[in-house]
């Protein structure tokens, strides 16, 4: 009984040895596959699960922080641009309300001869002459009628302020040639007066030619007296008047003319032999310089500059808004990618853990 059983077991053992000798690599390959599977299961959990995900997380975090910083910077720039728009519009409106006064000078060699209107009252014009280069010859027979070489015109008109009393004016043509320093020298004589002070009023207006060509000279003089100021010069002195012309341009395009004066007064030494109670008046009119002063209000706000600035600001706003929108989209995309990778990493880690448990069992 024992011999047949031993012979059968021995035969099975020999068959196994022969099978192993015929296929010696199969078992090795199986062992290698088992070891490779085990190593593939262990490596993601030891290396990829600790180092690579942490590196990816740190890079993603830095990118997100950098994107947020850029977004805040562009939001700040947008706020600054909005403030600049508001400030630009406010400055433009302010400059429109408060124009700047501009003064320019125009050089001329000849002026339009001004008109000089005298209101002598009881005084009488003795002489009137044109001289040049600031030279006035010595007086000959002062107090006696002399040559009247000026263009004169007498005019009577109603007082524009009272509309009752009549005014009597002697209009004389003023100097023209400023390069040659032309001047007009006049002498008046007053026999006597019951007033404590003696003076003669005069009025300057821009053009003697306009007065001569005016069909209504009385109305012309009334308008001049309403528009221009009047001055005085006293008896017993030589009053030297130096004139300058100022033109002012109004907002409606009209132009007004004003005279500025510098006067110097010199005492007259009466050398007549007989004592007299009369008064002598001497006055000189001359242009101060060859420059006509023009005054006008200028609006310094340039609408084209403001439009160009606003276009640049709005372009910067649109670019900033576009960049902010792209930044937000990019942050959302990075976030979704990070969540996807995290989900894949956790899923692979769970599967590797399950394989390790199966291998250990």
UniProtKB/TrEMBL annotation:
Segments traversing the membrane: 65-86
Major localization listed first in the record, in broad terms: membrane
Entry annotated with the keyword Transmembrane: yes
MF term (GO), any: chloride channel activity
Compartment(s) where it occurs, according to its Swiss-Prot or TrEMBL record: Cell membrane
Positions of the UniProt region annotated as Disordered: 1-36
A GO CC annotation given for this chain: chloride channel complex
Reactions that this protein is recorded to catalyse: chloride(in) = chloride(out)
Residue spans of biased composition, Basic and acidic residues class: 16-36
This protein's UniProt keywords: Cell membrane, Chloride, Chloride channel, Ion channel, Ion transport, Membrane, Transmembrane, Transmembrane helix, Transport
Membrane topology of the entry: Multi-pass membrane protein
Pfam families per record: TMEM206
InterPro entries attached to this UniProt entry: TMEM206
Family named by the database record: Belongs to the proton-activated chloride channel family.
Protein name: Proton-activated chloride channel
Organism: Melopsittacus undulatus (Budgerigar)
Lineage: Eukaryota, Metazoa, Chordata, Craniata, Vertebrata
């Amino acid at each position: 009984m024992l011999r047949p059983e031993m012979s059968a077991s021995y035969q099975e053992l020999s068959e196994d040895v022969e099978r192993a000798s015929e296929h010696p690599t199969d078992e090795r390959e199986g062992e290698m596959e088992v070891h490779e599977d085990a190593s593939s299961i262990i490596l993601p959990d030891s290396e990829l699960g600790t180092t690579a995900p942490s590196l990816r997380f740190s890079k993603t975090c830095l990118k997100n922080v950098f994107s947020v910083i850029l977004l805040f910077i562009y939001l700040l720039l947008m706020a600054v641009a909005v403030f600049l728009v508001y400030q630009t519009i406010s400055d433009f409106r302010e400059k429109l309300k408060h124009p700047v006064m501009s003064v320019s000078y125009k050089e001329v060699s000849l002026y339009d001869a001004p008109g000089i209107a005298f209101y002598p009252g009881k005084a009488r014009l003795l002489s009137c002459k044109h001289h040049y280069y600031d030279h006035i010859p010595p007086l000959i027979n002062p107090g006696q009628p002399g040559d009247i070489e000026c263009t004169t015109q007498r005019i009577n008109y109603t007082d524009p302020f009272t509309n009752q009393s009549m005014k009597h004016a002697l209009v004389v043509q003023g100097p023209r040639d400023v390069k040659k320093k032309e001047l007009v020298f006049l002498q008046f004589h007053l026999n006597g007066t019951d007033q404590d002070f003696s003076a003669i009023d005069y009025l300057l207006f821009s053009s003697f030619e306009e007065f001569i060509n005016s069909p209504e000279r009385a109305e012309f003089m009334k308008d001049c007296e309403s528009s221009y100021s009047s001055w005085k010069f006293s008896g017993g002195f030589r009053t030297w008047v130096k004139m300058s012309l100022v033109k002012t341009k109004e907002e409606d395009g009209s132009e007004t003319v004003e005279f500025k004066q510098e006067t110097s007064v010199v005492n007259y030494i009466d050398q007549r032999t007989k004592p007299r109670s009369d008064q002598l008046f001497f006055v000189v009119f001359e242009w101060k310089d060859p420059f006509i002063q023009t005054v006008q209000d200028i609006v310094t706000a340039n609408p084209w500059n403001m439009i160009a600035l606003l276009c640049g600001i709005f372009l910067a706003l649109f670019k900033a808004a576009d960049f902010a929108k792209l930044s937000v989209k990019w942050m959302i995309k990075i976030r979704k990618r990070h969540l996807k990778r995290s989900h894949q990493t956790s899923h692979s880690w769970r599967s590797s853990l399950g394989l390790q448990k199966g291998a250990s069992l």
